[in-house]
Amino acid sequence: MPDLTKTAEETPAQAPVAAAAKPEKARSLGSDAWHDLRRKPIFVISALLILLLIVIAVAPGLFTSVDPRAGDLREHFHTPPNYSHFFEGDWFGYDGQGRSIYARVIYGARASVVVGICVTVGTTILGGIFGMLAGYFGGWIDTIISRVTDIFFGIPLLLGSLVILNAFTSRTIWSVVFALITLGWTQMTRVMRGSVITVKQADFVTAAKALGAGTGRIMFKHILPNAIAPVIVVATISLGGYIALEATLSFLGIGLQDPTISWGIDINSAQKLIRTAPFALFFPAGMLSITVLAFIMLGDAVRDALDPKLR
């Protein structure tokens, strides 16, 4: 006959084992993507570079105490890069007006970061709203928004920005932001529209409609969280492109103007003296390239993490 007392005593001891065997709670799309991103070296490297760039843009005084606009004509390319005086402002040498190239590279990050972030946020919000309206409602709303998008999409971004900025007598950071947002929202609209059309056909959206959920709740509670991933990827990659476009406009003389400090302005000033003082061109151009590359790398990592087909 079995010992019932012993069996009863051993049963509570087995409870922790059963509790430990419970399945792990499923992660959301965001947490799952973050779990993958933390293990990607390309994401870590690009994120650290972007973090450093943001710190430089917010507090350039932490990296140099030299006035980037103060020039000394006695240093007119006479002093080459001097690596023994890192924080004194002459580490990168001096430009054609005797201004510290190192200080101008540091302070030039602010204009690029502000333009890139503001244009990306503006185009994402504007394009996201239009794309969601066109994709969800369809019909004549989709037709009107799509035709307007096609018209703006047919205007080259660089050429259109030149035309818009040429109408401003004083071109500042905000005029450049306005010009790029005016013509740059079309890509976000197309991406959001296609994503919304795909998501609104899902079963959970049909179930929400059957349960009587309103249009606003369906759009912002059910469709938007599931349709935003492609937009985030495109926005991250586009940010680097907008920084490069701002530098291009400033290089052509139609973007930012003095006294604003920009890498594009410095590249334009140094291009004529590339043989006699190549360092004046190399440092701002190199900083611009590293910045754009960092955002492109970040966008690639985010795309791989958010795209279920690449898992």
From TrEMBL:
Which residue numbers delimit the ABC transmembrane type-1 domain?
109-299
- Gene3D superfamilies noted in UniProt: MetI-like
Instruction: Give the bilayer topology.
Output: Multi-pass membrane protein
Q: Where is this region: Disordered?
A: 1-24
Q: Where in the cell is it found?
A: Cell membrane
- GO-annotated biological processes: transmembrane transport
Q: Which UniProt keywords apply?
A: Cell membrane, Membrane, Transmembrane, Transmembrane helix, Transport
Entry's transmembrane regions: 42-63, 113-136, 148-167, 173-192, 227-245, 279-302
Cite the record's Low complexity compositional bias ranges.
Answer: 10-21
Single GO cellular component term = plasma membrane
- Its main subcellular localisation, reduced to a broad class, is membrane
The family classification in the record reads: Belongs to the binding-protein-dependent transport system permease family.
> PANTHER family attached here?
ABC TRANSPORTER PERMEASE PROTEIN (PTHR43386:SF6), OLIGOPEPTIDE TRANSPORT SYSTEM PERMEASE PROTEIN APPC (PTHR43386)
What protein am I looking at?
A: Peptide ABC transporter permease
Q: Which organism is it from?
A: Kitasatospora aureofaciens (Streptomyces aureofaciens)
